């Protein structure tokens, strides 16, 4: 058989045995051709080999989905009067994000199918029982094609508040994307349900709304916003009760 035919067959990746006039031609899947002639009493069998190239199609996996847990932040300390706000940022270069799931201590505590991805885990949830130190991560699920990915795990604290009249920040540390916003809830463990006065110190690119939260509710949800291009900025939000005898709370904010 001509050598050019050997090359053609090696590219197709076939395996063939052709027998005729005492000769055999074998093409392995790896593209090696060996032609063996009839044995000679004096010299033994004659062999000619050709190494071809595999030209079959190769399939490569599509890019994996990505997800980052943005709250709670690593090292956050929460108190048991606070719901735990869990938020995440997810993306997929191909496919469609079906949902983002949230886990505490490897237990599924909720999911969200719409941006911005986030849930509130209420105080007393079974996943929070038995310890004051917990781990959390986010898990993204995509379809068409199906893919999944986990975020990096974070560790946070969760325990009872100290025996004092005080405002409590839930959480005490938060990340906000540049050009975006998130929320911090301040809970008043004071007599009655006072209003709050909010101040911001540090990076001027970080702001809060409202600056004054009216009385009548123990929980005050505050929106924290960061200006575009402010990545790396840091600020502190202080919440003071509008009545005396209640210690203020401070939440640290980092722009990611």
TrEMBL record:
<dbReference type="InterPro" id="IPR006311">
    <property type="entry name" value="TAT_signal"/>
</dbReference>
<dbReference type="InterPro" id="IPR013783">
    <property type="entry name" value="Ig-like_fold"/>
</dbReference>
<protein>
    <recommendedName>
        <fullName>Ig-like domain (Group 3)</fullName>
    </recommendedName>
</protein>
<dbReference type="Pfam" id="PF17957">
    <property type="entry name" value="Big_7"/>
</dbReference>
<keyword id="KW-0732">Signal</keyword>
<feature type="signal peptide">
    <location>
        <begin position="1"/>
        <end position="34"/>
    </location>
</feature>
<dbReference type="GO" id="GO:0005975">
    <property type="term" value="P:carbohydrate metabolic process"/>
</dbReference>
């Amino acid at each position: 058989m001509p050598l050019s035919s050997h090359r053609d067959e090696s590219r197709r990746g076939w395996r063939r045995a052709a027998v005729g006039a005492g000769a055999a031609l074998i093409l392995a899947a790896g593209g090696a051709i060996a032609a063996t002639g009839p044995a000679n009493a004096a010299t033994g069998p004659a062999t000619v080999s050709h190494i071809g190239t595999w030209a079959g199609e190769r399939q490569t996996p599509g890019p994996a989905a990505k997800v980052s847990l943005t709250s709670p932040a690593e090292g956050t300390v929460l108190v048991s009067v606070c719901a735990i706000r869990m938020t995440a940022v997810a993306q997929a270069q191909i496919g469609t994000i079906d949902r983002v799931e949230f886990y505490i201590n490897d237990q599924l505590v909720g999911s969200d199918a719409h941006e911005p991805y986030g849930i509130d885990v209420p105080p007393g949830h079974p996943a929070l029982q038995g310890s004051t130190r917990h781990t959390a991560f986010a898990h993204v699920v995509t379809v068409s094609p199906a893919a999944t990915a986990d975020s990096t795990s974070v560790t946070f604290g969760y325990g009872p508040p100290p025996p004092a009249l005080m405002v409590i920040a839930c959480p005490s540390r938060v990340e906000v994307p540049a050009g975006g916003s998130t929320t911090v809830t301040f809970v008043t463990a004071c007599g009655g349900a006072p209003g709050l006065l909010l101040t911001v110190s540090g990076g001027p690119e970080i702001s809060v709304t409202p600056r004054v939260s009216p009385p009548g509710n123990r929980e005050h949800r505050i929106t924290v916003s960061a200006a575009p291009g402010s990545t790396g900025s840091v600020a502190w939000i202080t919440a003071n009760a509008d009545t005396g005898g209640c210690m203020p709370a401070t939440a640290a904010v980092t722009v990611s």
